[in-house]
Amino acid sequence: MSLYQDQEEVSPALKMNANIGFEFTNPDTVNGKELFEKDLMLTPEQWHAIRERKAISNVIFRWPPGPNGYPLIPYRFVDPVNRQAVEDGIKHWMEHTCITFEETFNTNQPHLQLIQGSGCWSYVGRVYYWNGQDLSLPPSCTGFGVVVHEIGHAIGFWHEQSRLDRDNHVLVILDNILETRQSNFNKLNNANAYGVPYDYTSVMHYGDTYFTKNGNLTIATTNPLYQELIGQRGGLSHYDKLLANLIYNCTDMWMSNCGLRSDPCENYGYIGADCRCVCPSGTSGDNCTLVTSDYYDDKFSSCTEVITQPGTITSHPDYPDNYEAGLRCTKVIKAPVCFLPVVTFNNFLIYGPLSNGQCYWDFLLIRTFNLSAGEMYCGSQISPGVSFTSTVDEMSLYFSTRTRLYNGWSANVTFVPIDGCW
Known about the structure:
Layout: H1 11-16, H2 22-25, E1 29-30, E2 33-34, E3 40-41, H3 44-51, E4 72-77, H4 83-96, E5 100-103, E6 112-115, E7 121-123, E8 133-136, H5 144-155, E9 170-172, E10 219-221, H6 238-247, H7 250-257, E11 270-271, E12 277-278, E13 283-284, E14 290-291, E15 305-307, E16 311-314, E17 328-334, E18 339-349, E19 363-367, E20 375-377, E21 387-389, E22 394-400, E23 408-417
Parallel strand pairs: 3-7, 4-5, 4-6, 6-8, 15-17
Antiparallel strand pairs: 1-2, 7-8, 9-10, 11-12, 13-14, 16-23, 17-22, 18-21, 18-23, 19-20, 19-22
Helix pairs in contact: 4-5
């Protein structure tokens, strides 16, 4: 197999990883209507609010309560959508919120219509004046995380990086974004976060190369160590669950059922249906009182590390065996005072670039001085013996894969003294 694949030759990677992003597969328009941020169908009122920079919270409608008092979302299958995939996604939301879903054959009411449209997309929240609103999940969009993501939009979630406070957590690199897609990264005015912290691990967060025009990152985390976390589609994060339960007043209803006047759970924990606190990672105790570690500490891959000593590093723990698809590894290298980090490669072999030269399927990003800069490498673009020296006391290597055809890379880390520094 050639290291340099044409852009159209995607079948090997597609067979190994079905969760190709909607930014790659979705059309720009559906039935003449533009998809906002590439997977959102908006009502005229929502489009107006966004274009006029008005409060979008005023144009999102929640699903009303059903007979049991909890929010009810009726749904029906219009097309032969993968039923098991939909039911798995629905079950995931129901297990972690008070939102209920019920298959219906009554079309004379607001409900979700599961269709096999062009790409993966949904409306945002309940479209109150229609008897049915489409949620499109063709065969290419039935990965678990994709289904959970699109149901999240139907519940009322926007993309995480649209929050007004996102600049404190991520850097949107406009120079790397397709000019026609830069508006996809706009912040939305008054999108209510209900006091929930920004969440790198939200299932609603864009991936880090969405809408790239040159293969480089379009979203960089302010802390390079967190780069691997954004864009996950493994399921709901703790903060996703918390936000949904706040939006739909689940916690208030559960507290009432439990005979509680206030939520006893601390540190962004919340009371659950069983009257026990649902605690975020990094906390312990019945009421989540004790903070034992950072929220993200248990979410890093086993190959992510902070390196402060000279030695050999590899792309993945099983090197020189082939790496797996879906791997994300971050190496943050920190030099001692008055030294600079140097990385010298022994071997480098990963999946090659597209016909336009972009590294899409697998890549290694090397950043040596700031968040918005860095170079991506793939194929065999780094020869043995090639060194990279940072201009500051820190550098990072971020390795991301969508295939499992090659064995990756190994390199030596050393530190060189800075002239005139002591």
